[in-house]
Specification:
Rossmann fold, Dihydrodipicolinate Reductase, domain 2, eleven-stranded mixed β-sheet, six-stranded parallel β-sheet, 18% strand, disordered N terminus
Length: 492
């Protein structure tokens, strides 16, 4: 007989009372900072449905399949070619799965306890809210939302339904990252004065088409677009390149950058949106069908704490001298990572989420940390205990980190055209000027010193209300969804 989420938890409790393995044994990962220890027991596995299977979704499908206390029972994708391929892959591993083209049918199933969402960004929040309202636990990839208010809608849905909702920022389960941040926040190097996130990741042109393209018959394009405005396919490749179109993606700031933004905000100890945001950047170096910046600096200011600076560079160190493999810039020894600048040194956390370093002002290493974690196992741990407090990356954290990226993009979207020299003039204070000057050096090395840039509008934010005093800015914190892909009234 199929069981719902509460039945699932009750069945586990009965096994404990009858002499089965106790649920408290699942708390080891949270208490010690080690990987969760999920014992083999007679308790039922957590039955998972995975939606969005092309890329990250396939990786998550395999990661959860490899956990002994989880079972993949459902797969969903609007591309039948991808769906059939993943179904064959998981069935060859011994799983029996149902397949769906419509996510709403999957969450209607009593055979599924939790869903894993790895669709394009514009679907993350709506699917999360629908799943939570259906009583399903949710693991949702970053960014959890496409705009600020969508993220808050997920937080509200998780709270009112009492479900576990984990954000896919796996650094939150890394013992090295946790230790590095604890060290920085302990005051061992004095006060944290500034936090910097770096996303220097090669992003080549996606090409430019001459007119609307044809979507393969294997793809339900109506469902693929979902809440996004309807428009014909305006790029050469439907999959993945949606990241670089602002109706479906959020650029690299809201792609790779969310991981580093999350670590930066965590390290700074900011549990709210910034008071002010400013951006300068553009899509430079090529003319293609993307419309999100490949070169950008955003500055987020907090009246009661350290500012956060985030830098995106998608072009190489020197475009003229590059071959097939682009050599990227580095800053403080990293292309992708986070720097916690302190009064007496700094803490560096590079991409990989399994290392961290503390250095003094002369660059001497004071301490280092190594060790990873299993983010998916942490989610299963929390679901089995029916306890959202066990999550390493609860949706409230994922919402704020995603929203910090979104407000930077709002500044960009409301900005005006200028040059990098204009950006230097517009920069206020040492932190902004330093970041813009280095961006200028990067652009000049690529022969783009005169390229047009967008000088963002400086926006003020009511962080408590997660809104903006300026109605023009506030309107960018949300959007109208396309029917019938809309949020329920209590989640809007």
């Amino acid at each position: 007989m199929a069981m719902n989420r509460r039945d699932f938890v009750g069945r586990g409790a009965a096994l404990v009372a009858g002499g089965g393995l106790a649920v408290p044994g699942l708390l080891v990962g949270k208490a010690t900072g080690q990987d969760p220890v999920i014992p083999t027991s007679s308790e039922p596995p957590v039955r998972l449905g995975v939606v969005g299977l092309n890329g990250r979704g396939g990786s998550l499908m395999n990661a959860f399949h490899n956990l002994p206390e989880a079972s993949i029972v459902g797969l969903c994708d609007v591309d039948s070619t991808v769906l059939d391929r993943r179904a064959l892959e998981i069935e060859e591993k011994g799983a029996t799965v149902a397949t769906y083209r419509d996510f709403r049918r999957m969450i209607d199933s009593d055979e599924i306890d939790a869903v894993v969402i790895a669709t394009p960004n514009h679907w993350h929040a709506l699917m999360s809210v629908w799943a939570a309202d259906a009583g399903k636990h949710v693991y949702v990839e970053k960014p959890v939302s496409h705009n600020v208010l969508e993220g808050r809608a997920i937080v509200s849905a998780a709270e009112r339904n009492g479900i576990c909702c984990q954000t896919g920022t796996q650094s939150r389960s890394s013992s090295a990252v946790r230790s590095a941040i604890d060290f920085a926040r302990s005051g061992a190097l004095g006060k944290i004065t500034c936090v910097r996130g770096l996303c220097y990741k090669p992003r080549r042109s996606i090409g430019k088409v001459r007119g609307p393209g044809f979507v393969p018959e294997t793809i339900d394009y109506h469902r693929w677009l979902g809440p996004a405005p309807y428009e014909p396919l305006n790029r050469g490749r439907l999959h993945y390149d949606w990241h670089w179109h602002d109706q479906t993606g959020n650029g690299d700031l809201g792609n790779q950058g969310v991981h580093q933004m999350d670590i930066a905000r965590w390290g700074a100890g900011h549990d709210r949106l910034p008071d002010r945001a400013w951006s300068v950047g553009g899509r430079v170096g090529y003319d293609d069908d993307g419309n999100t910046p490949n070169t950008q600096v955003i500055v987020l200011e907090y009246e009661d704490g350290a500012p956060m600076v985030f830098e995106v560079r998608g072009l190489p160190r020197d475009l003229k001298q590059q071959t097939d493999k682009w050599d990227m810039d580095t800053h403080h020894g990293m292309s992708i990572g986070v720097i916690l600048h302190c009064e007496q040194g700094e803490v560096r956390i590079p991409k990989g989420y399994s290392r961290g370093f503390a250095l003094d002002l002369d660059g001497n290493e004071l301490q280092k940390w190594e060790g990873g974690g299993n983010h998916q196992a942490n989610f299963i741990e929390a679901v089995r205990a029916d306890d959202p407090s066990l999550l390493n990356a609860p949706i409230s954290e994922g919402h704020l980190s995603s929203a910090c990226c979104h407000v930077g993009m709002v500044s960009h979207e409301l900005g005006g055209q200028g040059t990098i020299d204009d950006a230097r003039t517009a920069a206020v204070g040492e932190i902004e000027r330093e970041a813009v000057v280095r961006m200028q050096g990067h652009m000049e090395a690529n022969g783009l010193g005169d390229a047009p840039m967008t000088i963002g509008r400086r926006i003020a934010i009511d962080s408590a209300g997660e809104s903006a005093p300026d109605p023009v800015v506030n309107a960018r914190f949300t959007r109208t969804c396309r029917q019938p892909f809309v949020f329920p009234d209590h989640g809007s």
